[in-house]
Design a protein that fits this description.
It is a single chain. By secondary structure, this protein is mostly helical. The protein has 2 domains: 56 residues; 222 residues, MetI-like fold (Orthogonal Bundle), CATH 1.10.3720. The chain contains 11 helices and no strands. The relative contact order is 0.11. About 2% of the residues have low confidence. Its main location: membrane. This is ABC transporter permease. It is found in: Cell membrane. It is a multi-pass membrane protein.
């Protein structure tokens, strides 16, 4: 049976407000989250372009945004190859730091004696300057890819182990007593209570580690980078500094920043998918 004219009119009246509400919702979200950063970015780039012109500063001292863009375009193939190498090194270093950091944290959290014996050395490892550790890594693993991955791993390792261990030791006391009441073993508590409860802490550590892995890879490339198409952003920056190609240095630095932001957004997306709607942080992000 066909719908009557009155039913069609009612349906249109219901649909139009919904469409208007959706449009206003998108507009409000854009105004709230994106408009401010976009305006700030435009003002920053405009000032960056104008100030060197007013001061009369040469491009090899402080390049303008147009100089940076031209350098990125003219040496685009070199920049792209450097980005690919750095991405590969960073991803491997991040995965190693995540896996080894989480496994180490579980082992430390399983015994207070082990935690008190080993965790202080993890803190000491974090306090060592990377510049001092990197040459030793090069001696042990040789110059090139392996050493850079190890440096990236070392920088990203501590945030994972620190946050994960904190989460594993922050289990709700009532839930722990409930598991004990049902005679749950130590490892049953670990897999079914402590690790799920620590997931927000684990994801927070991974968010920090993913950005630090980029920094570690670039720092490693300064010390252990090699040329011949195998050099990453750190090696490209080193060569450009020798050539006083400041515009390309800025282009490499911006590329590294974009990589760091992209890594962070990707891990944040995975975090929201894993936490879903059961944790407060994910629920707040969805609102």
């Amino acid at each position: 049976m066909s719908m009557s004219t009155t039913e069609v009119a009612k349906k249109e009246m219901i649909t139009k407000p919904e469409q208007g509400t959706k449009g206003s919702y998108i507009r409000d979200k854009f105004m709230q989250y994106f408009l401010g950063p976009i305006i700030a970015f435009i003002l920053f780039v405009a000032l960056w372009q104008v100030i060197p012109l007013i001061i009369g500063m040469p491009h090899y001292i402080f390049p303008k945004p147009t100089d940076v863009v031209n350098a990125a375009i003219s040496d685009g193939s070199l920049l792209w190859e450097a980005v690919k190498v750095t991405v590969l090194e960073s991803v491997i270093g991040f995965v190693l730091s995540g896996v080894i950091g989480i496994v180490t944290s579980i082992i430390l959290a399983s015994s207070k004696i082990i935690e008190r014996s080993i965790y202080p050395y993890a803190i000491i490892l974090q306090t060592l300057p990377v510049v001092a550790v990197a040459p030793i890594v090069v001696i042990w693993f040789g110059a090139g890819f392996n050493s850079i991955v190890v440096v990236s791993f070392l920088i990203g390792f501590f945030p994972v182990i620190s946050n994960t261990l904190m989460g594993l030791n922050s289990v709700d006391k009532n839930m722990d007593e409930l598991f004990s009441l049902y005679n749950a073993s130590k490892w049953q508590k670990m897999w079914k209570l402590r690790i799920p409860s620590a997931m927000p802490f684990i994801m927070a550590g991974l968010k920090v580690s993913c950005t630090l892995s980029i920094v570690g890879a670039i720092v490693g490339e300064y010390v252990a980078g090699v040329g011949g198409g195998e050099g990453g952003l750190g090696y490209a920056i080193t060569v450009s500094a020798i050539q006083v190609n400041t515009s390309f240095i800025f282009a490499c630095a911006i590329a590294g920043a974009i990589l760091g932001v992209s890594f962070y957004l990707l891990v944040s997306l995975i975090s929201n998918k894993i936490l879903g709607s059961w944790h407060e942080s994910a629920v707040k992000n969805e609102k």
